[in-house]
Amino acid sequence: MKRATLFSAALLALALTHQATDVQAQQKEKTVTVGGAPMYPSKNIVENAVNSKDHTTLVAAVKAAGLVETLSGKGPFTVFAPTNAAFDMLPAGTVENLVKPENKATLTNILTYHVVAGKLDGKAIWKMLDKDGKAELTTVQGEKLTVWKKGKDLYIKDSKGGDAKITISDVHQSNGVIHVIDHVLMP
């Protein structure tokens, strides 16, 4: 009986030490705060996004499209992540309609239009710009986005001519990088 109790106590101590080490490691990581929550480079895109109060609509859409497993995968991915306010700019009822099961293909098409294969931080994107201050990126969905600069800011033009400003860049993840944007991109 004593041996079992000692063994249980040792396992508990080991678990608590491991948990404390994880917390200490996360505290040492260079984080960016998005939506009131620190984004840890040791966590993947989905693990971080679920903590951002500014991205609840995006997270719900990713779940409805069945992309959680993909965006939790190895990657690397560059994600242009629209805020809740960006989704709110869409015509009334658009989001509610898109998350319906019968519209999964359309929703997936829109969401994958916000993802580029590879890890493109802000510095890498700036280096890609041509003499006119523009660069084309091919999305996972297959269509192109045009990145362009205005002063010290980067914008993204979608295929319909809409622009989104990168408001927070270089939110590093274990499987890529997120850039927060202020509009939803439309293929």
Automatic annotation (TrEMBL):
<feature type="domain" description="FAS1">
    <location>
        <begin position="42"/>
        <end position="185"/>
    </location>
</feature>
<dbReference type="InterPro" id="IPR000782">
    <property type="entry name" value="FAS1_domain"/>
</dbReference>
<dbReference type="Pfam" id="PF02469">
    <property type="entry name" value="Fasciclin"/>
</dbReference>
<dbReference type="InterPro" id="IPR036378">
    <property type="entry name" value="FAS1_dom_sf"/>
</dbReference>
<protein>
    <submittedName>
        <fullName>Fasciclin</fullName>
    </submittedName>
</protein>
<feature type="signal peptide">
    <location>
        <begin position="1"/>
        <end position="20"/>
    </location>
</feature>
<dbReference type="InterPro" id="IPR050904">
    <property type="entry name" value="Adhesion/Biosynth-related"/>
</dbReference>
<keyword id="KW-0732">Signal</keyword>
<dbReference type="GO" id="GO:0005615">
    <property type="term" value="C:extracellular space"/>
</dbReference>
